[in-house]
Specification:
InterPro entries: FApF. The chain is an all-beta fold. Helices cover 0% and strands 62% of the residues. The chain has a single domain, classed as Beta Barrel (Porin). It contains no helices and 13 strands.
Amino acid sequence: MWTYNALGEPPPISTDRILQTNSPDILQPGYSQIETGFYSYETDKENNVKSKHSFLNNTIYRIGFREKMELRVGLYGYNLEHVGSEDNSGVSDGELSTKILLLKESESNPKTTLNAGFTVPTGNDAFSSDRADPFFSFIPSFTNLLPDSISNDNSLGITWSDAKADFKYGTLWGYGISKSVTFYGEFFGSIPIDSGSNSHGFDWGFTW
């Protein structure tokens, strides 16, 4: 991750990549931030065939535009796919989006932001929808309502691909082991609104 501040002072670090659940935090004007990483996952069965997917250089560039708004340019990265006995690889699509503060945190309210935008069909044929697909998600964070050692961010929204809509969710829980080390676990998934099969996942790790 790389952060730039036109004023020369480093901002508090808050990242959206590489997890499925975005942070509710918004970069302030004068700040910009690049986040990149990679992730890999396997499915037990995908159309009755086991598969493995890896995404390299999954990157987002965030720019503080207004006090309650940031602009975002994303690249989903290079996709390595193994399905059954077949291998495929190529560049995935990108995205243009914004994140807007809807509700400030208070003693009774969770901090809530809206992330909305559309994909940009920059990927290879095998990994692109060949169209601009809209998406949005609400991101409520209940961290301010929990004990200091526990954090919780959530994401609830809808994505479209090839005119098909999916409800997507994510919930991220963190526990501060010390001042600098946090253990986290994340549940996430996708549920087709019209037709198709559900997809659910879990990941965990440490931040330092």
